[in-house]
User: What shape does this take?
Amino acid sequence: MKIISVLSGKYSNNKSVNKSEIDTKNPVSRFYIFILLFNQYFNAYSRKISPPFEKEMDAIAEALSIDKMDRIRLTEFFVNEEPYTDKNNSVYFNNNKKQPSVKYIGANIMYARNRINEIVYLKYFENYDLFLSKTFVKSKTQYQFMEDVVTTELNVFNAANYFMDDFGYNTFEEVVDSVKNHKPFQYFELAATANTPKIVLDPEGGKIIISGSSSPFSPTNFFAPILQWLENYRILAKNPLRIFIMLDYFNTHTSKFLLRLCHQCDIIAKEGRQIKIYWYFDPEDSDMRDFGEHLAGIYKKDFEYCLITDGIEGLT
Assistant: This one.
């Protein structure tokens, strides 16, 4: 009944929350209570705690001895409605059988069985040794290059309720380790769409592939992770890098990205790293050849021209 008195605070603005009213001494139990209350107070439309209840939430956090950083991370979890965006103590799972160890920049993606079109997002809270779990369901819209993402469920996930091999790991500890030991320099593959190219970032194979048509709606968001990956290569990798660029069309934003890419490669190469760029072009497309020459003027170390009919597969 003492815990119920805290829950009733949402519906009674005059009621104060007293620490002595919390009769549990277990910090995990207190955090469970805080999660439930946070979920009630959180406004999914404004993506924040409803203003009338901010003071109540502050009082509850103090009464339950919730750490400020845990409250910030909890807010990050509830605010996040897009897969693969939260890089803070987070892990993602999907049903990608072809690449059971596929990695996404900033987050791990492992195979989760029986989760067709689902992505499970887990955020780890070290003070309580548990994850909060949110499931996203993706579906195609009438525009094939876009997807709808809907949140279907929220769960608490810990060692006690972990089902062995549910996400490609045998134990709960392995899931925790995947978050704690995560490094941002990982394999990433993105299929081509009508307006974005296929992207492959392969640290073990030492290659980057960019192929297709490129006119992304949000060029900064699309290209920034590639440049960040290249910077991580500079810091973490030791093997040579090959970059294959085979574009049949690209817009102005893409051309600016390619210039930045070559400039960044030039800086890394001057530090003694081996990077080779393969520029594919149609022999009848003089503009594509000319732009390649412009890129070669920026990256002078090792730039090779290839006919687009040769294909990338033979070189990889």
Observations:
- The radius of gyration is 24 Å.
- Confidence is low (pLDDT under 50) at residues 1-22, 97-112.
